[in-house]
Design a protein that fits this description.
six-stranded mixed sheet, two-stranded antiparallel ribbon, alpha+beta
Length: about 200
């Protein structure tokens, strides 16, 4: 059953994994852009707490296990690096995007993977992170859709097998992370994952 499940997801992964941040060249399944410098002047809505679900904890743990070992993401070698710490503001920004995708659909395509990072309100990852009250020097985002419920470990494996996503996960420039998983069985992909990375 697990092999059939993974085989069925391969096609979904081609359309449903996108990364924003890092430094690799965009491809059909991975897109990148750099969020560094100063925050845009977007009004902040400070977040005081964002509870972590079991699936989100699994993702955080799997990311930190990955960061503990050196690995190559595409053609870029990364040394082992420090673990990321949970940040409620980044989690809130991730939640906004996962909920948007769960209500309005995953927007990325093979031809335009960057569209997966743009909210239906036109917001970018950096704008959502700023609106959550996170004052960042650098930030990035990984997005995925279509993994089965309980697929939190599998989504991290998918991200690690994609150069742009892997680079975001392994980048030593990021110190904090917020993760969101939202499920909506009425949508085509039905599961929506967002990782927002940052450093202050």
């Amino acid at each position: 059953m697990k092999v059939q499940q993974w085989s069925g997801l391969i096609g979904v992964l081609a359309l449903a994994l996108t990364a924003c941040g890092g430094s690799s060249t965009p491809t059909a399944v991975t897109s990148t852009s750099v969020g560094s410098g100063t925050n845009a002047s977007v009004p902040a809505a400070p977040v005081t707490s964002q509870a972590i679900s079991a699936d989100e904890q699994t993702i955080l743990d799997a990311v930190n296990v990955a960061r503990a070992s050196a690995r190559t993401c595409g053609t870029t070698a990364f040394a082992a690096t420090t673990p990321l710490t949970w940040n409620a503001q980044l989690a809130a920004a991730a939640r906004v995007h996962s909920e948007d995708m769960a209500q309005n659909g995953y927007r990325g395509t093979a031809a335009d993977a960057e569209a997966a990072h743009v909210g239906t309100d036109g917001s970018t990852p950096q704008q959502r992170i700023t609106q959550a009250g996170y004052v960042w020097k650098t930030s990035g985002e990984n997005v995925a859709a279509g993994y089965t419920v309980g697929g939190a470990f599998d989504v991290v494996t998918g991200w690690l097998n994609s150069p742009g996503h892997c680079a975001n996960i392994m980048s030593p420039k990021y110190k904090e992370i917020g993760v969101s998983f939202v499920f909506n069985d009425k949508m085509k992909y039905n599961s929506f994952f967002t990782q927002d990375f940052g450093s202050r």
